[in-house]
């Protein structure tokens, strides 16, 4: 998975092509289905949970157990990550329910509210309250 961020640079001479693409990370660990930039400048990437392991592990002892998951009932891989474009660092986040066909919106306080999904994600609400890049925050 390649993580790209569109960087806009406005100059009179470049008026027809105001942006550039820059590769920040060769592998984000997940296939991002949703991407959202927080008010701290970090980027939340979110994938579905029902297609097996991702390419980035959750911290030890922090696995997701779901006996109803059709692909993987004991999953120690992350299905959401936080990208810090300032350092190109990627940190795994723990999402508990499937986000396929979900939707998201930022609340006035900057919290990302993610609703719905398929299978065990149906009728679920998830919240990500962003934190400064040097702190640890995760989905609730």
Structural commentary:
The chain is mainly beta. It has a domain at 34-128. 0% of the residues lie in helices and 34% in strands. The chain has no helices and 11 strands. The chain has strands at residues 3-8, 19-25, 34-37, 43-46, 64-65, 74-75, 80-84, 89-93, 103-106, 112-115, 125-128. Strands 3-4-7-8 form a 4-stranded antiparallel β-sheet, with no helix packed on it. A 3-stranded antiparallel β-sheet has the order 9-10-11, with no helix packed on it. Strand 5 (64-65) and strand 6 form a beta hairpin. 26% of the residues are buried. Residues 4-13 have low confidence and may be disordered.
What's the arrangement of secondary structure elements?
Blueprint: E1 3-8, E2 19-25, E3 34-37, E4 43-46, E5 64-65, E6 74-75, E7 80-84, E8 89-93, E9 103-106, E10 112-115, E11 125-128
Antiparallel strand pairs: 1-2, 3-4, 4-7, 5-6, 7-8, 9-10, 10-11
Pfam families: Glyoxal_oxid_N
Domain Glyoxal oxidase N-terminal: 33-140
Protein name: Glyoxal oxidase N-terminal domain-containing protein
